[in-house]
Amino acid sequence: MLLPFTKLTPVGAKEGEPLHQGYHLGARTAATGVRPAVTPFSVRMPVPPVLQPAQSAYGTDIYKMVIKPAEVEIVPGLRTPVLTYGGSFVGPTIRAKSGRAVKIVYGNRLDMPANVHLHGGHVPPGSDGHPMDVIQPGEARLYDYPNTQQGATLWYHDHSHHMEAEHVYRGMHGFYLIDDDSERSLRLPQGAYDVPIMLRDSEFDETGGLIFFDDPANRTTILANGKIQPYFPVAARKYRFRLLNASNEHVFRLNLGGQEMMKIASDGGLLPAPVPVTELVLASAERTEIVVDFSRHPVGEQLILFNGSDPVLRFDVTREAADDSWLPDVLRPLPALPVAPVEREVAMSFDLSGTDPVGLVNGRPFDPGRVDFQIRRGTTEIWHVRNADTITIDHTFHMHLAQFQVLDRNGGPPLPQDAGLKDTVHVPPGGSLRIQATFGDYLGRYVYHCHYLEHSSIGMMAQMEIIA
Ligand code: C2O
Ligand code: CU
Ligand code: CU
Asked: Which of 36, 182, 352, 416 has its CA 20 to 30 A from that of 361?
């Protein structure tokens, strides 16, 4: 669906008083996209650099990052203006450790407010990147990440209200990986053989600029770590790939042309056991981790990762290598599900009755002054999440603060992509799921929302408050 972006008043702002001014990089009228002329598999897929701490002391690593505009080469030979964390289109990777705190100072050098949300993180409310809690231009802000959670592939992105869709689309996204000592004994592939891959969609104009104000269905150019159809040289051994769908609104159907992949983790970390799959369905903001054993393929062989039938990335087996990694039969058990004393309904939909569409949760657009659910700290709840639209449109559901487990989907068993600890799930037309979460740790306000960011940015978001 094409949402008319031109006349939106940010929710929470008065008529004629936008929350942010002077922020748009591109024309607000829909431009015509071009399919960049790229020779497939001619560019190597980069691995985003791991950021080094500016300081390490007393069980804490302190990092510094700057939020700033940059120009990067995505389409070969052209410069693309982007918005970044740390100057690169896929921001630097933070490698945190379970049980060891991270603090990050972010300086905002944009000419507009921005912030940082650690997607999937259990963090205090003041460090969660609440949509109304932004860093003003020229200012800096310290975010506190205690990492009191098990190993997982998280990511960080902008969450400044009304602007999150454009900011993330223009490049404000990066990986935040939590390593876990208890995973060490599993001897999964690590180091250079543990590779995060950010997949996302995009649409370009003929100068290489990213087109934001157009129908998201025209974002047909898929990027792998910021490159179009790159290749990635691999050794003939096992690799761990951490796949993230960082698209604003897209469901990927990933496959290796029928080859088997072993799925080992989802949003919140390891599954109880590896699951052999030939296809991975990955909706916006979801993560999945796989182990691929290239030792089954002779040096010289090439394997293509497809989205449906669209080639996204090619793995080139270029050399032999020793491999002392394992793929154990048992990974990590899921936490038990206690009896849930509270059940709630969460319905996502659009109000299309006015000139502009408005996103709704339980019939109401986001209001930062309103608490939609009050939740007692430590309680376990079952939420019934559904797509309440009568038009055919996808949503995803994402909850801050807690990881949940999917109990059932459309009255039947969960789908393979629902397995494990989750913070984001696909809610397609007619979709209805029951999820169970325990709300521990922190008191305060957190949001839950559709992670189709064009939807959350026009109101498809609500707020919970964890109380004592
Ligand atoms: Cu990925 Cu509310 O966030
Ligand atoms: Cu989040
Ligand atoms: Cu939605």
From this structure: 416
14: in domain = yes
Total count of residues recorded for the chain: 468
> Structurally, how many domains does the chain consist of?
3
Choose among 109, 156, 108: nearest CA to 134.
108
pLDDT exceeds cutoff 60 at 2: no
Q: How many angstroms does the Cα of residue 207 sit away from the middle of ligand 3?
A: 31
Domain span including residue 396: 342-467
Other CB atoms closer than 10 Å to residue 385's CB: what's the count?
A: 26
CB contact set of 192 (below 8 Å; sequence gap of 6+): none
In terms of domains, do 315 and 437 share one?
no
Residue 27 Cα to ligand 1 midpoint, Å, equals 26
What is the distance between the alpha carbons of residues 437 and 268, in angstroms, rounded to a whole number? 12
Q: Which atom from ligand 1 is nearest to the alpha carbon of 119?
A: 1
Q: For residue 315, report the distance from its CA to the centre of ligand 2, in Å.
A: 31
Question: Of 24-28, 226-230, 337-341, which gets the smallest average pLDDT?
Answer: 24-28
* Ligand 1 atom 3 nearest Cα: 119
Q: Does ligand 1 lie within 6 Å of residue 117's CB atom?
A: yes
Q: Is residue 332 part of a domain?
A: no
Closest CA to 35 of 194, 147, 203, 169: 203
23 plus 169 within the same structural domain: yes
157 lines ligand 1 (CB under 6 A): yes
pLDDT digit string, tens, across residues 86-102: 999 999 999 999 999 99
Distance (Å) from CA 159 to ligand 1 centroid: 7
With 0-12 / 13-18 / 19 or more C-beta atoms within 10 angstroms meaning exposed / middle / buried, residue 269 is buried
37 and 165 inside one domain: yes
User: Ligand 1 pocket, 434 CB below 6 A?
Assistant: no
Domain match, 237 and 376 both: no
Q: Are residues 28 and 175 in the same domain?
A: yes
Distance 298 CA to ligand 1 centre (A): 41
Confirm or reject: Cβ of 130 under 6 Å from ligand 1. no
In this structure, are 315 and 431 located in the same domain?
A: no
Q: Is 285 in the pocket of ligand 1 (CB under 6 A)?
A: yes
E strands, 278-430, where? 279-283, 287-293, 302-307, 310-319, 342-351, 358-361, 373-376, 380-387, 395-399, 404-409, 424-427
pTM score: 0.94
